[in-house]
Every structure is written in C-alpha cells, then in structure tokens.
TrEMBL record:
The lineage of its organism: Bacteria, Bacillati, Actinomycetota, Actinomycetes, Streptosporangiales. InterPro entries: Iso_Racemase_Enz_sf (IPR053714), MaiA/AMDase (IPR026286). GO terms for molecular function: maleate isomerase activity. Keywords: Isomerase. This is Maleate isomerase. Its EC number is 5.2.1.1.
Amino acid sequence: MTRVGVVVPPANPAVEPEFARLLGARADLHVTRFPVRPGLQLAERLDAYNEALPAMIRSFGGLPLDALVMACSGSRYLLGPELDRRRCEELSAEFGLPVASATEATRRALEHLGTREITLVSPYQPWLTDHADRYWTAAGVRVARVIPVKAGERFAPYEVTTEELVGQIEQARAAPDAVLLLTGTGMPTLSAIGKLAEGNERVVLTSNLCGAWWALTSAGQQVMLGRRKHRDGERVPT
C-alpha cells in the first residue's frame, strides 16, 4: 500500500480531512505536526517551520513512506521558488524519498497543466499575500490579479467558510476562464471547487489538491490533474 507522509502546522484544520478525501483508497495518510511555538509572531513561526522540517521528517522514525508533503504554503513563500525547490531536493536526497512543500507541489501542477497565468486567491494578511505574489512571479507564473479572502472582517485562513470563499470570489468577478489558485493549506477548499467551476471554464487548484496529486504521482501512481467532477462536486486527482 502506498504511504504518504504529511507535515502540518499545529492548528491547521483542513489538511488531514482534505488529504484523506483526495487520496482515498489509493494511499494511506500519515501525519505529524510541527511543535507549538507560543509567543512567536506569524513570520517567526513560519521561519521556525522551515527550520524544523528535517526533524519532523525524522519523527516518522522507521515508517517507510513513498512521498512526503510539507503542507504549509506560507512558510515557503518566505523562501522564494528557487530556495524552496533546492531545499526540497536536498531533503529528498537526504531521506531517500520524494519530498515537496505545498508550494513546490503546486508549481509542479501548474507546470504539468502548462499554466503560465493565475488568479491568486489568498486568505493571508496583506504582507504574506505580497510574498505569495512575488513567489509565483519569480517562478515564471504571471499573477493576473489577486483576490483577498476574509473570514468575516479578518484575515484568518482557518476560519474561512465555503460560503465566504465562493461569495468573495464571485463578488470580485473572477473571469469565467481563469485558473484560480486557492492558496493556503489551512483554508478549507474542497467543498468550494465544484461551485466555483460550475457553468464556466475555470480551472480551480488548491494547495491541498496539488499536494495530494504530487504525492500520488511521485509515489508511482498514474494520476491526472483534471476537471473531472466527483459526485460531491470536487475537482480532484483522477
């Protein structure tokens, strides 16, 4: 059986349920969480996740994994695409298995689809959204526009509801043929995908969708990233 390891920020509510649904019966999911670091500002916590990643991979002990995803986008936006990619390659060589961050997995998905332009949907605080914009631009992907998403009046990715996510994207009049990148592994997104794609030609990608696709593909499974809709309206790896 294929085994996928995932490293998750401590309070992230979305990665485990979404990865479990996306992987389905094709892989077993194994998760470890970054340690809680009270008192740190967000930027400091994100930096700490980057530094702690090797230790978190080692925390799986002797469990044989076929692929591993660092399911945190914000921390890698601070690095930029080249350093992000290089660190993933170094970890893959060190641990003898494919390792990717959520952002590197997303970059691979965009490359696989031949996508050179996105509409970035971000629940982050503006300073971190700016980092995300610069990351994708440096990766050779044109950010046609940015749509900020709030939970109520706050930038709080873990608290964004499906209704808020869909409503704010539609209120912003996202193009009917846009490639929407819903960034952030902690913002629940799967229930929104079908609604955002209904009756138009949009391609809707999310951090967790891309991470699951990359993990299955890297583990040797033949997986396409397409527009097929499952019975619950998700657009998922098939």
